[in-house]
């Protein structure tokens, strides 16, 4: 698929929006509130795209681990661009690295996120008119969530007392975004790379930005932001655990291989031995 076609698909996400609108109305039919329906919908979508997220995370990590070697190649062949590109391509192939591996999964997810954003911003445009939720949204009092009308932003509320639950919701969004960013920063560690330092600085500012835009967006979207943040915190913890388990397995394989190599070397040093000696040795080992 060409990049221009993919970008067009991202912004022309109406089929996805209609499908998500139908799913949202279907969840609402199970006698749950509008807010809980948004939470369940967000979780379902995150679970569906989790394999893509996992692939994206692992590809990003491989690229980060490859940076020192890539810099060495770039420095060594800086006067020969053709040879440098050849060596980089060979390094990617040898280590199973796809330079687009951390970008393509993200681009594939974007139409879904744009569609979900559109549905929660203007639900009546995408929810089937015959659905129960469509009728319920016509009466804001019937779809309150913790005394909040999820169809309006916090900025539309005039009395500060009535704004309190909206403000608490926004603070939760900022807090969970900070926790999520702390997870990523801890994983990446300290770095002297100016680009990575700049990215980490942007990451620290983003939670405040989300809090600011949450003030002006329909509160249903804020519930979506909060649910997504909490899900990704757990998701990141799971990915870290999977990576640690994979590293432990690799270490165990290396240790077993070292033991086997050491055993073979010991046998070569001792020279040929008869069967009787082998039996005596086995008995001593058992004891």
SSE layout:
Layout: H1 3-11, H2 14-28, H3 34-48, H4 50-76, H5 81-94, H6 104-121, H7 132-137, E1 144-145, E2 148-149, H8 160-188, H9 194-214, H10 219-270, H11 275-286
Antiparallel strand pairs: 1-2
Helix pairs in contact: 1-6, 2-3, 2-6, 3-10, 4-5, 4-6, 8-9, 8-10
Verbal overview:
- The protein is mostly helical and 287 residues long.
- The protein folds into 2 domains: 1-144, no CATH class; 146-265, no CATH class.
- Helices cover 76% and strands 1% of the residues.
- A two-stranded antiparallel sheet has the order 1-2.
- β1 (144-145) and β2 (148-149) form a beta hairpin.
- α2 (14-28) packs across α3 and α2 (14-28) packs across α6.
| N-to-C SSE string, H for helix and E for strand | HHHHHHHEEHHHH
The total beta strand count reads: 2
Number of helical segments? Answer: 11
Structural class: mainly alpha
Number of domains: 2
CA radius of gyration: 27 Å
- Strands of the widest sheet, in order across it, are 1-2
Query: What is the molecular shape?
Result: elongated
Short account of what is shown:
The chain is 76% helix and 1% strand. The protein is mainly alpha-helical.
Describe this protein with a few key phrases.
2 domains; about 290 residues; single chain; two-stranded antiparallel ribbon; about 0% strand; 2 strands; elongated
């Amino acid at each position: 698929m060409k990049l221009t076609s993919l970008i067009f698909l991202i912004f022309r996400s109406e089929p996805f929006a209609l499908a998500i609108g139908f799913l949202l109305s279907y969840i609402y039919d199970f006698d749950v509130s509008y807010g809980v329906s948004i939470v369940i919908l967000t979780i379902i979508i995150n679970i569906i795209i989790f394999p893509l997220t996992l692939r994206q995370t692992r590809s990003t990590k491989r690229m980060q681990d490859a940076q020192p070697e890539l810099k060495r190649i770039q420095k060594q062949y800086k006067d020969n661009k053709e040879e440098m590109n050849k060596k980089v391509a060979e390094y990617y192939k040898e280590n199973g690295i796809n330079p687009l591996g951390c970008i393509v999964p993200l681009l594939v997810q974007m139409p879904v996120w744009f569609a979900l954003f559109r549905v929660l911003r203007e639900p009546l445009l995408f929810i089937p008119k015959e659905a129960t939720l469509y009728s319920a949204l016509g009466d804001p009092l019937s779809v309150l969530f913790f005394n909040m009308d999820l169809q309006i932003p916090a900025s539309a509320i005039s009395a500060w007392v009535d704004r309190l639950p909206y403000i608490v919701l926004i603070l939760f969004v900022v807090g969970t975004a900070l926790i999520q960013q702390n997870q990523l920063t801890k994983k990446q560690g300290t770095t002297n790379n100016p680009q990575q330092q700049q990215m980490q600085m942007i990451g620290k500012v983003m939670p405040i930005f989300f809090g600011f835009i949450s003030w002006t967006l329909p509160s249903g979207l804020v519930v979506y932001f909060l649910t997504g943040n909490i899900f990704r915190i757990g998701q990141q913890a799971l990915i870290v655990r999977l990576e640690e388990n994979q590293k432990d397995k690799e270490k165990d394989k290396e240790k077993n291989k070292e033991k086997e190599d050491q055993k073979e070397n010991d046998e070569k040093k001792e020279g040929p031995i008869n069967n009787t000696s082998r039996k005596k040795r086995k008995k001593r080992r058992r004891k």
